[in-house]
Amino acid sequence: MNEFITILLKSSLSIVFLYLVYVLFMKKDTFFKTNRFYLISAMLISLIIPFIDFSRFFNHEQLTYAVLLDPVVITAEGVKASMAGNPGFYQILIAIYLTGVFIFTIRFIYQIVQLIFLIRRYGISKNSGMNIIFTDKTFSPFSFFNLIFLNSTDIDDSDTKKIIQHERIHIRQWHSADLILLEILTIFQWFNPFIWLYRHAIKVLHEFLADEGVLYSGVDVNVYSALLFEQSTGIQINDLTNNFSKSLLKRRFIMMNKKKTTQFARIKLLLVLPLAVSFMLVISLSPDVMAQEVKKSNSAQQAERVVKTPTPEDPPPPPKKIVKDAQKGQEEKAPIFTVVEEMPEFPGGQKALYEYMSENIQYPQQAKEKGISGTVFVSYVIEKDGSVSNIELLRGAEKSLDAEAIRVIKSMPDWKPGKQRGKAVRVQYNLPVKFTLDDKKKEEK
How many CB atoms lie within 10 A of CB 309? Predict the structure, then answer.
C-alpha cells in the first residue's frame, strides 16, 4: 500500500508541475499542435515516471527510506490495540480514494452508455463519407471519434457544411482519443485539482485547432464567429465529446484574431524540456533523499542515547576497533531496499507480529510509577536470511521505554526474507511502539 501511495503522489506532482510549465511558457502561443503534443506527452510521462527508479544511476550513495508499520499501543495492562485491528488515518484515506475511483468509473461508463443511447435512438446516416447522426435541436453539434452529431437535417446548408468541416478536424486529429485518455487518468487522479485544469486546457486546444483548420480553408472569420455563437447555445452532452462550447467562445474569438506567434518562440521549448527532465529526477529521488537525511540526522542524535540505555539483556559494548570493523563491513553489504516485489513477512503474518509484541513486551515499572508515556520509533532491517539487524532508535520517549522497545525487537524470531526479482534482499522497516497510561492513572501518579 505504501508503494501505491508513493506512485500516486509522484504522478500527481508530475501533473502539477508539467501543467504549470505549460501555463507559464506555452499557453499564450498559437502553436496549437505543439501545445497539444506537449500536454499529451506530459500526461503520459506523469503515468510512467513513478515506475522509473533513477536511484540506480546514483550508485555512489545508498538512498533508502523505511516502510512505516502500524503502531503497537502498549498500556499498563498490556497491548491495548494496534492499527492492524482498527482503521487508521491511511486506511480512511484509501477508503475515500477508492470511493472516488468507483464514482468516476461509473461516471465514465454512464457517458459511454449515453452516447450509445443517442446512436440507437437517432441512427447513423452516411453523407460524403461521414457518419452523421441527426439529433433534435436541444443538443449542440459535437463529435465522438468518427461520428458527427448534428441538430439539422439540411446537410447542404452552408452553415451545416462549416460545422461538419469543424467536426471533421476533430475526427482527423483523433481528439476523442485524448479525451478518453484524460477520462481514464481522471478516474485515478480525481482528487487532484490540477487534473481538471489539465482537462480544460486540452479541450480548449482541440477547439483552437478545429477553428484554425476551418479558417485556413478560407472561411471568413466574422461569418464563422457568428456561426459559433449561434450553435453554442444547445445542451453539451458530456465530457467525452468535442462540443461547440459557449464557455470557450471568448477565448476562441481572441485566438482567431490573434497575431500568429513567431517561430522564435519555439526556442522556449529548449528551456522547458531540460526543466521538465530535472523535475522528473527530483520527483523520482526526493522521497529517498529526504528519508535518508532524516535517517542520518536521527541516527546521529540517537546512537549515543541507545548505547547509554542498555537493558540487562544487552551485552557489554564491544571495543572501538571491533565497532569500526563492523561498520566497515556493514557498508560493504548489499543495498537496503524499502519496497520490493515480495515484502518480508513475520512468521504467521502481521497479526502474529502483534501477538508476539503483546506476549513479550512489558510496560516498564519505573515509567508506570512516574506516569511516563510516549511513542518510540525503532528502525530495523530484515536481512537476506530473515534475521533482524541494524536496530536503531529513530526517536525515543524515555530511557526505560526506549530500552524495552529495542529489547523486544532484538529478540524477534527470523522473518521470511523479502525478495526482489526472485532473490532475497535486505529490507528496512520503522516500527512505532506507543506506551500509554489512561488519564486516571496519570492523575493518581
Answer: 18
* Residue 237 near residue 118, CB atoms below 8 Å: yes
How do beta strands 336-337 and 67-68 pair? unpaired
Report how far residue 207's alpha carbon sits from residue 167's, in angstroms, rounded to the nearest whole number. 10
Q: How far apart are CA 171 and CA 188, in angstroms?
A: 26
- Cα–Cα dist 151/165, whole Å: 15
- Dihedral angle, C-alpha 47, 50, 51, 56, nearest 10 °: 150
∠ CA 430-431-437, rounded to 5°: 145
Distance CA 64, CA 299 (A): 14
The residue type found at 222 is N
Alpha-carbon gap, residue 381 to 338, rounded angstroms: 10
Q: Give dist(CA 171, CA 99) in Å, integer.
A: 34
Residues in the chain: 445
pLDDT digits (tens, 9 = 90+) for 391-414: 988 888 888 888 888 898 888 899
Please compute the mean of the pLDDT values over residues 213-218 and round it to a whole number: 84
Confidence of residue 261 (pLDDT cuts 50, 70, 90): low
The model's pTM is 0.61
Angle formed at CA 267 by CA 262 and CA 273, multiple of 5 degrees: 135
In 123-148, which ranges are continuous DSSP H helix? none
Residue 428: count of CB within 10 angstroms of its CB = 21
392-398 long-range contacts (CB < 8 A, ≥24 apart) are: 392/298, 392/299, 392/302, 392/303, 392/306, 393/302, 393/303, 393/305, 393/306, 394/295, 394/298, 394/299, 394/302, 394/430, 395/298, 395/302, 396/302, 396/305, 397/372, 397/373, 397/435, 398/367, 398/372, 398/374
CA dihedral 169, 171, 173, 176 (to 10 degrees): 130
Query: Distance (Å, rounded) from C-alpha 223 to C-alpha 249?
Result: 14
